[in-house]
Every structure is written in C-alpha cells, then in structure tokens.
Amino acid sequence: MGEERSITVAVTGASGACYAQRLLQLLDASPRVRQINLLISENGRRVFAEELDVDIPHPLNPEVADRLGLSRHKLVCFQLNDLGAPISSGSYPVDGMVIVPCSVGTLGAIATGATTNLIHRAADVMLKEGRRLILVVRETPLNAIHLQNMLTLRQLGAVILPAMPAFYHRPRTIEDLVKHFVYRILDHLGIEHPQETMWRGGRAWT
Ligand SMILES: Cc1cc2nc3c(=O)[nH]c(=O)nc-3n(C[C@H](O)[C@H](O)[C@H](O)COP(=O)(O)O)c2cc1C
C-alpha cells in the first residue's frame, strides 16, 4: 500500500455534476486518500442545482454532505476568492488535482495563465510544480480556441480527459456510464478502485 494522498477536486459550471459527485464519493471511500480539497465555482453550484437538485453551501454542511453520499471527514472546503489558501502555494503538498466537470471558460483561464480565482491558481500551481492535473473538459462542439487551449495544456503536462463516456464495457444504466468514466479518472490519479477498466480484446474478429 502506497502513501496516502491529498487530492484537489474543483467543480466548474459545465454539464456533468454527476461525475463530480461520484468521484468525491470514491475518493472519500478510498483508503489511499487522506484529504480532499474541494473547490466549487458559482456556476459549478448552479449546475449541481440544475442537474442533481442539490444546493451546495459553503462550507458543506452535514445535511448536504449526506445527500451527496459524503462522510466529510476528509473534506476541506475552500472559498473561490481565497487566494491566500494553502493550495495557492506550491509549498503545500497536493498530489493531484481534477477539474470535473471543467468548463471551457476555466480551461481558457488556465491555458492563458489568467488566474482570477482559486481554481485557476491551484491548477497553475500544479503545472508549475510538475504535479498531476486532470481536466474533464465538457463542451460540444469545440471551437478552435477550445482545441488550442487543450493542446497548450497537454503540452504543459496536464491530462485532458474530456467527458466522453465509453460503451465498450456495455453499460446498462447511466450510473454504469458515469462510474466507468470516473474509474478512468482514478486510473489517471493512480488510485485503485474496484472495477476492471482494462480492455482485454473482447471478441476476436477474423
Ligand atoms: C446548466 C448549465 C450548463 C452549462 N454547461 C456548460 C458546458 O457543458 N460546458 C461549458 O464549458 N460551459 C457550460 N455552461 C456555461 C458555464 O457555466 C459558464 O461559461 C461559466 O462562466 C463557467 O464558469 P466557471 O468555469 O468559473 O464555472 C453551462 C451553464 C449552465 C448554467
């Protein structure tokens, strides 16, 4: 068993709050995770309310944590305007950061280095410190600015993991789709999970 990790999860105003909820639950349950640093943008809250019917207060109160299926004992919630928070500094140990879902607005801010909130700053720190940064970008269709921003961040070492669920594992429910996609995020964080995500060849075509 390796070291326990501290992971930052940022939720922004793109569609796909269900991915964030499931990721938080799995990190919360993982013995490999010691701390979850949680950041939610204004529009992240809006999308949570629209898609999951959950109004997220700051800090997360026990009732809402319960509704989200979170125990809260690992969660550290940060305000978006608190640029003096520990995760604003490279000296603070954070092992990985996931922005899920990631709007193209947040993608653009990080790609240009225009850090106007703590999500942008924390991501900037991950890049400058050479730590793992995963962006679950969600938008369709994509214009040239979005594509260029993704290329820029990939070239800087970020993992671009667009919210594109797969079907090769034959999902039967939306929950199957969401879980399989979130397990792929955990694969990129190097955190073990209960489900086989490796494609082993399937049917042999002759
Ligand atoms: C219900 C809803 C769904 C949205 N879906 C997306 C989306 O899928 N992708 C995206 O880039 N922006 C989406 N937006 C727009 C963003 O929320 C908006 O651009 C916002 O400024 C992003 O700010 P943030 O990155 O700080 O959260 C959506 C907005 C709402 C209200």
Keyword list:
206 residues, 7 helices, globular, Rossmann fold, 6-stranded parallel beta sheet, 6 strands, alpha/beta, binds flavin mononucleotide, 38% helix
Task: Write structural notes for this entry.
The protein is of the alpha/beta class. It has one domain (5-189): 3-Layer(aba) Sandwich (Rossmann fold), CATH 3.40.50. Helix content is 38%, strand content 16%. The chain is built from 7 helices and 6 strands; from the N terminus they run E-H-E-H-H-E-E-H-H-E-H-E-H. It has a 6-stranded parallel beta sheet, sandwiched between helices. Helix 1 (17-29) packs across helix 7. The longest helix is centred in the last third of the chain and has 16 residues, at 174-189. The protein is globular. The termini are far apart. The structure holds flavin mononucleotide (FMN).
Mean pLDDT equals 93
Query: Class, according to the CATH hierarchy?
Result: Alpha Beta
Estimate what percentage of residues fall within beta strands: 15-25%
Structural class by sheet pairing and helices: alpha/beta
Order of helices and strands: EHEHHEEHHEHEH
Q: Secondary-structure map with pairings?
A:
Layout lengths: L4 E7 L5 H13 L3 E8 L1 H11 L9 H7 L6 E3 L18 E7 L1 H9 L5 H11 L3 E6 L6 H12 L3 E2 L13 H16 L17
Parallel strand pairs: 1-2, 1-4, 2-3, 4-5, 5-6
Helix pairs in contact: 1-7, 4-6
The chain binds flavin mononucleotide.
Flavin mononucleotide binds next to helix 2 and helix 4.
